[in-house]
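The following record pairs a protein chain with its ligand, FE2/S2 (inorganic) cluster.
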Amino acid sequence: MAKIKVANVNDVAEGGLKKVDVNGEPVALFKIAGQIFATSNICTHAHCELDVSNVIHGDVVECTCHGSQFNVKTGAVVLPPATEPLKTYQVSVEGEDVFVEG
Ligand code: FES
């Protein structure tokens, strides 16, 4: 797996979501309490893009298509109808550069 630079830490707002590409896959970056996390940007329920709704409650992102909720730190389903977790990616920050393992 390669480490890919995807953003500057300041590109991701606290409590926000930024969509980036990792080897052609849409990935969502989240900043929670200053720490960056990365998951697939595609909801596992019916494949809506999470950045379109961009509703975040603490460390939970909600897909507004049908209301599924996921923990952005683990990818785990918090609220159905989704049953499959989001894919998560390992993130590292060097200086102001954000890298994702892809
Ligand atoms: S596509 Fe996300 S909840 Fe249905």
